[in-house]
């Protein structure tokens, strides 16, 4: 997968060199390129923003600068016509649709993601409109109901959540099957390791029993209880077919 991130703070994306995403890049599974938006400015001061039309606080990012950057990144050099179908433009913003594991799964199918990180009061609204009109898939995404100073941290979140779903990136792909926000729709059960007793706290005995069916049932019950307490909205969203006879008793 190819990922282009455009920002006025390229250094903010340095963590993409590390850990799992860094390894995926080294292994050639992920081609991430971070670009400085100011490289597409044409004035001496490398200006990327201006005051909001209609007045108000802060600054708005200029559509012409973003247009120059995105024209180049969305349409690979020499490609005729509109940008290719495998690409999606992502614009992190607190007013976007909420980014979830389902979004990450959908994006992991794409060949190419372009992330446009806004700062200040955001990017002129015509930028998203223009690329939609040109037939580009554009999604404005929020990573949660809080306000960050810009889209960079959200871009890190999206790239990490998507990268770990790409084939070959996780050492043990089974890690994907039982985790929170996975297929069960439940939060993950609590996990334990050695020592069995630590500071007077003893790990649940069932986990030492070697009885796979009992362990599976215990984990399922724990996941249900946890979800009911912490995220009742997730439990409420599960259809009756997602719960078995034992589940209903928990
Ligand atoms: N930019 C500022 N706040 C944001 C948020 N919550 N999600 C995505 N991008 C943002």
TrEMBL record:
A Pfam family the protein falls into: tRNA_m1G_MT
CDD domains referenced in this protein's UniProt entry, alphabetically: TrmD-like
Binding site for S-adenosyl-L-methionine: 118, 143-148
Main location: cytoplasm
The keyword S-adenosyl-L-methionine belongs to this UniProt entry's keyword annotation: yes
Molecular-function annotations in GO: tRNA (guanine(37)-N1)-methyltransferase activity
Domain of life, source organism: Bacteria
InterPro entries, alphabetized: Alpha/beta_knot_MTases, tRNA_m1G_MeTrfase_C_sf, tRNA_m1G_MeTrfase_TrmD, tRNA_m1G_MTases_N, tRNA_MeTrfase_TRMD/TRM10
Family the UniProt entry places it in: Belongs to the RNA methyltransferase TrmD family.
UniProt name for this protein: tRNA (guanine-N(1)-)-methyltransferase
Gene label: trmD
